[in-house]
Amino acid sequence: MSALRLIILALLIYAGYRLLFGGRKKDKRERKERAAAGESAAVSDILVEDPVCHVLVPKGQAIRLQHQGKIVYFCSEECCNTFIEKGTDA
Ligand SMILES: [Zn+2]
User: CB of 72 within 8 A of CB of 48?
Assistant: First the structure.
């Protein structure tokens, strides 16, 4: 029982140490990387709705289809094909 407590205590100390010293450095680096990635990363994070299965997909990962002058987004090629097969009224 005491050994388990010691491990938990060690983990807590480690977590606290990381929070105080490691956390800040990592935060700064992540922010820098995000800034370098620019707007494209932010745009790819936007969720779009698949009109076939109504699942929300990140824009960057979605399958795109030009449809009646609009771009329609799908979670997979399967849904894209279903949309095409169903016709343009969907
Ligand atoms: Zn889908």
Answer: no
Distance (Å, rounded) from C-alpha 85 to C-alpha 47?
A: 24
| Residues lying with their CB under 5 A of ligand 1, a single-atom ion | 50, 52-53, 75, 79
Q: What is the pLDDT of residue 58?
A: 95
Structure tokens at 41: 């990363």
Q: What's the gap in Å between 52 CA and the centre of ligand 1?
A: 6
Q: For position 51, what pLDDT does the model report?
A: 95
Domain ranges (residues) in the chain: 2-37, 42-86
Confidence of residue 46 (pLDDT cuts 50, 70, 90): very high
